[in-house]
DNA sequence: TATGAATGAGAATTCATTCAT
DNA sequence: TATGAATGAATTCTCATTCAT
């Protein structure tokens, strides 16, 4: 009876009965948790909702993750792991310094757009003063390769005369992230204050262009011969 | 007994000036709410804690603010009103375009440092998709004068040749806010990932310098005569 | 029967509506908790049951006692306070040493019969290794006056030749408690093993006589002149 | 993979002797259950903990014992069987009546010290009003031989003039058990109230001496010739 | 205006037990 | 025989809100 009801809800082929596949169940719960925590924050997330979102039940959640807090940590770890993986696919050093920086800006922008959960989860974790991150060896070991890559790009650009000197790669990296982050993370209040047009698809390109112009306008030295006249 | 003692402490006769207790109680609760919502977000904030933080009681809170949500809205309105007031004290148009922009960056940076609650409250409101802001006529009427001021600065700079052309004041305003916001709002996770040294007082100045260099490096045209040679 | 008894407790005149008498509500909850913990032990007791037994609700229980564990502690404290009060009403020193000891035995026996909760609560607390008692300053300060009283009786008896010498009052006190405690605390298993007749009202007197004979038979020296012959 | 590895470790071929795993598993679970129920009582015991304590799993526990309650019953039966076995090794009738009683006291004392689980399990069963015992034919058939033995000792002692008359062997048996039981079962609260020194090893001997003196002081008639004079 | 008492609905977490392999 | 996965029903505890004085 119960089985019938349940099976009608879920397609017979995929999940008629309990999965009995630990890894899969765990992954499903984790994915549901990512959505829930991203949408409602740590405090606002509901364990019940995560379980039913995952097509599982609360008990399984505790079976695999022990507590809501630890589940949140697992979510953070997955989120960090995901972005690190995406970063590794970037080959910024294949291009010219200018092109490399341009691609980094674009990557950041597009990643944040494709993964809005990253922004809200990070906000949540900061609201809690990075309490969970502090306890996670895993995350602390996941260093982003991008700071070093950006450092290499800056050095190359300086050497070939295209970039100005004296730029700290960490500060610049943070600035690049900032420009995308703020715009997307605060889109609801920004839309309210400056009008929803700001978030049309056309405006998205405009924002990307602006950010690129800002960063490259700062970095790139006017080329020789490009004498500036009045 | 206790009541008598308490009331004598707050009795109009002993107060220095005939302060309206009602207004004072309301303000105290609001101030406590700002702290609580800033610290814990909307979901994590506790009505009990606000009441006791205010040295008052829950009944008063409901008496003046009707519900937790409306109290949150009041908090947002106060927070926006505060920053608008601070912005009005700025006289960016008294200075040169370059100096005006520099001051705007500095103001933003320092305001965010002095008012960390602004950042977390905004994050909270965005988590809730600006649900409260949408309902607040008051906030929507509180337009920031800075976009227009920045537009004027950009136009002046363009005219006097110091600034590049084609810069959208809104985009630039958002970028300026971004650079401070991200760094401060995510300080806990950033400290965890890049080390706590990033947030020493010395580093603060470095961040401000970097942001200023970035924005002005982009905006300011190399001066005439500053010919670039091989 | 039970309904009648219960409803009389809540007669319309006394508690039709919420009591709004903090002390009374608290006391009612505490009384209900004594019953529930005594019946089911700490682990087996149900917070819901306590609340409804008290004609109140769970929330009030937490309002006044913070947690199940702290409520249990309050119950222990009350239980200890009760027996100490009862002990203070005893005037053992008014009687002869023999009579004094007899009365102590009788008091212990009757108190344990009248207060079966004392036995089970003590068992529970010992199961938990006196975890709660350790935290209770109140209980540690509630010293029983009976050890000292018993010491005085023993000294007097020794002096007037009625009691043997070399008896440690603490050991004897513990033994007196033991004799009643074991019989009553284990009555269910004893009845199962030795038959329920052991707990008839007639047998109760027999037990009291036996315990008195045992203790006094040990303490009291055969009187002079009562020569023992073959 | 993991399963294969595990089962190969326990395969009959690698075991030293061809032990019947079934019996062993059952015994291991039972032993673990004794500990767990003794420590936490019936209500506080956790099926999970028993399984992992036994190095086994919950399914096996249910396979062999059907339910938590039945497992508790099995534990009680084992506990009773153990003490009956130990009692049978006593040969109290080999000695003089006085010596026989002395040995019985000592045996009780030492058995309770060596088997603290007996005390807590009995307390648990009494908290549940001997519910399980009532259902166990096995236990009801396991009569203690000691009542009869004690009866014989008392009769002999009366006949040879060493013991007083009119002593009910059951009452005395219960008293002897009481004196050890109470002291040991309530050791945690007693230590809290009277200080931990009461449970030093030295004090243990003092307690045994006291109990023996008490019982024999009551039982033994002053010897003939030991006329009491003025 | 002020305050402590009271509450229902809901939150996280736990538990004994069963299922599938 | 053995094992990990799965679950419904409780269980403790929390929270925003309202009531009585």
Description:
4 copies of one chain form a homotetramer. The first copy, chain A, has 230 residues and is mainly alpha-helical. Chain A folds into 2 domains: 17-66, Homeodomain-like (Arc Repressor Mutant, subunit A, Orthogonal Bundle), CATH 1.10.10; 76-230, Tetracycline Repressor, domain 2 (Orthogonal Bundle), CATH 1.10.357. Helix content of chain A is 73%, strand content 0%. Chain A contains 14 helices and no strands. In chain A, helix 7 packs parallel to helix 12 and helix 7 runs antiparallel to helix 14 (201-219). The longest helix of chain A has 23 residues, at 22-44. Chain A is globular, with a radius of gyration of 22 Å. The model of chain A is unreliable at 1-17 (pLDDT under 50). Chains A and B meet through helix 3, helix 8, helix 12, helix 13 and helix 14 of A and helix 2, helix 7, helix 11, helix 12 and helix 13 of B. Chain A binds a DNA duplex (21 and 21 nucleotides) through helix 5.
